[in-house]
Amino acid sequence: MRAISVLSAALLTLGLAAAPAAADSSPSPSASTDSKAPTQAGTSFRTAAEMEQGQTATAAASTGDYLYWSFPADTGQRPTVKATVKLPGSHAAQTWQLDVYDGLRRHQSCQYGAATRTAEQGSATVELACVLRTVRAWSEPWANDPLPGTYYVRLTVLNLGSADLGLPVRAEVRADSKDIGGAAAVDGSLGKPLVPGIAVKSDAEKDGSKSAVLSAIEPDDGWSSHWWSSRWVWTAVGGVLAALAGIGGYALTRGWGRPAYVPPGA
């Protein structure tokens, strides 16, 4: 009974200690407000409008335009990109496509979601979605795994008829992430996140001059240092549980010693 009591107390203590790690699997909160979201889109990778995760970016454009946005994604996150296109009152059938690229401009496949959809004639809107794979801290050079850094979103229409070319449309794009935590942890990390080196910022404290920076946006708590994940907690919990299981097994199998009625020399 004593061994069982000790085991129960240890399990309760470990459960309380692991609670913060379990919280890592919850969706990431939206730290940015839509008031700062971009209201226009870029026309290429270099001019992509930067948005934070949790913001809803909007843009007024013409049918046939290529629309680009970018957002940061860090290690352990599984981004979900959604887009809604409001179509003109009169149009033929249109096929819209949502593409996502990483910081090396490699196309990232969707784990699931409808990244290509056809709006039937006269439809008011078309909605697209793409759930990416979990961003890894490190990958082999030949692999196409998502890596931390800037991600580009491209929204465009395919197989457009000449009669619909140039019709006004309005697009809304939003990126959110679910934090996978230690389940996606790997041994290794990048030296730097994959972000463009074309952004500039003004130094208001000095002379107002502009200097080049890697990117004008980054995660609210900075880029991950990659040295800590909840996998450390669960590894320690597993080791302690294995030790307790060994102690409990020994206590149950060693018996209760020599019976009182058996003489010592027997």
**End-to-end C-alpha gap:** 29 Å
The ordered H/E elements are HHEEEEEEEEEEEEH
Q: Could you say which overall geometry the principal axes of the C-alpha atoms support?
A: elongated
Number of helices: 3
Summing up helix and strand content along with how strands pair, one would put the structural category as alpha+beta
Topology of this structure?
Elements: H1 2-17, H2 19-22, E1 49-50, E2 56-62, E3 67-73, E4 77-86, E5 94-101, E6 107-108, E7 116-119, E8 125-131, E9 149-158, E10 168-179, E11 199-202, E12 210-213, H3 230-253
Parallel strand pairs: 1-3
Antiparallel strand pairs: 2-10, 3-9, 4-8, 4-10, 5-6, 5-7, 5-9, 11-12
Helix pairs in contact: 1-3
Task: Explain what this protein looks like in three dimensions.
With 266 residues, this protein is α+β, with helices and mostly antiparallel strands. Helix content is 17%, strand content 29%. Strands 1, 3, 5, 6, 7 and 9 form a 6-stranded mixed beta sheet that branches. Strands 2-10-4-8 form a 4-stranded antiparallel beta sheet, with no helix packed on it. A two-stranded antiparallel ribbon has the order 11-12. A hairpin with a 7-residue loop joins strand 11 and strand 12. Helix 1 packs antiparallel against helix 3. The longest helix is centred in the C-terminal third of the chain and has 24 residues, at 230-253. The two termini are 29 Å apart.
What keywords describe this structure?
266 residues; four-stranded antiparallel sheet; 3 helices; 12 strands; elongated
